[in-house]
TrEMBL record:
This is Transposons Tn1721 resolvase. The gene is tnpR. Coiled coil: none annotated. Residues 1-139 form the Resolvase/invertase-type recombinase catalytic domain. It comes from Pseudomonas wadenswilerensis. Signal peptide: none annotated.
Amino acid sequence: MRLHRIKYFRLSLQEPEDSVEKSTRHDVFDAVFFDETADDAANRAGLEKLIRYIQCGDTVVVDSMASLSSSTEQLCTLIRRLIEKQVTLEFLNENLIFRHDCLEVVEPIIAVMEALAEFERAAAREKQATGIAAAKIRGLYKGRKKKLSDNQVVSLIDRARAGESKSKLARDFDISRQTLYRYLRST
């Protein structure tokens, strides 16, 4: 069985003209897979084709971690997915190699990366909460806009007390039943 050397990149991170040729010029690859600039995390046909193509023992070469993923959490998931297929993953810019046959080295690295991803999420949530609190103090943050006006709420409550069906009220006011019950509890 012949082992393959495979290249993956995203066009958005390459020079626009002749980027496929420039990206593969200095090395010989058995296959090249790429995704377009507009492809997002949910729509990466090139990456999915690569994953279907690779076989045990192949080497996947990626210019940088950023071209494989835009988030640390997603990057860790993709690295694990590729390692599970028993391939070697090379990141050229970071000079990192993840080998499927060296899991005792790979697993701690991925664990640290996942811990950093969790730290990033927690820091972002804390920063957001701090910003919202500061905006509330300055009177700039009002929260989510109310779905119903005060007059609509009065009408809703009157119709509910008159015995109208909750489902019909929710449809008539274009709100969920949960929102309907929240308005009814507020009286």
